[in-house]
């Protein structure tokens, strides 16, 4: 049983499903397994969450706090209020610490280099947090910028946009011993997810 951070800070945030009326631990585990996730979690009787990486031990709670009966089988328990009953699915955990790929020139708001996802992580950003976030969302590349911004992409940035590593000189908001890009400069990492081609995605001029 694990403590969940609620809507703004999910513990398992690869996928969330509302299975009101049908949720059981087996249904959630099967669903996450079929989607390729290593972990499944049930919460609040009818919610199913999936993740590619294991939740931290620091978030463990007493099993007695996972006391909500499952919507699909009231002889079993499916988490609680902000509590997750967590299971392995049999899929191998896929987190691979990301490799540093280089410092790249970003085109700013109108022409992002990594344009799958952008997050403002002011106060908390580190390379590992950005890599982990992008990994969980299924992106192959992660990039940190301007101390607190995290970007994700499914495709590799072009070599023509490479810059000197010295230009990625902004210290990370969450760890000032590390660097997180710069002004219109991205520190880019691989996440361990295989690069995927998405038809119709504009790659550049």
UniProtKB/TrEMBL annotation:
GO terms for cellular component: plasma membrane. It is a single-pass membrane protein. This is WSC domain-containing protein. It comes from the Eukaryota. It comes from Graphocephala atropunctata. Residues 1-90, 97-192 form the WSC domain. Pfam families: WSC. PROSITE patterns: WSC (PS51212).
């Amino acid at each position: 049983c694990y403590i969940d951070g609620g809507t703004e800070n999910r513990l398992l945030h690869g996928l969330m499903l509302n299975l009101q009326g049908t949720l059981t631990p087996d249904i959630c585990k099967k669903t996450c397994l079929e989607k390729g996730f290593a972990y499944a979690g049930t919460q609040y009787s009818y919610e199913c969450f999936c993740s590619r990486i294991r939740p931290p031990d620091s978030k463990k709670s007493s099993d007695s706090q996972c006391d909500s009966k499952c919507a699909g089988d009231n002889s079993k328990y499916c988490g609680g209020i902000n509590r997750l009953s967590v299971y392995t699915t049999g899929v191998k955990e896929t987190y691979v610490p990301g490799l540093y790929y280089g410092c790249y020139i970003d085109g700013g708001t109108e022409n992002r280099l990594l344009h799958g996802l952008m997050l403002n992580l002011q106060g908390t950003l580190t390379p590992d947090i950005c890599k982990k976030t992008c990994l969980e969302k299924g992106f192959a590349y992660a990039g940190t910028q301007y101390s607190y911004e995290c970007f994700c992409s499914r495709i590799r940035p072009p070599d023509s946009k490479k810059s000197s590593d010295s230009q990625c000189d902004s210290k990370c908001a969450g760890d000032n011993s590390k660097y997180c890009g710069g002004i219109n400069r991205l520190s880019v990492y691989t996440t361990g997810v295989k690069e995927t081609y998405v038809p119709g995605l504009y790659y550049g001029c």
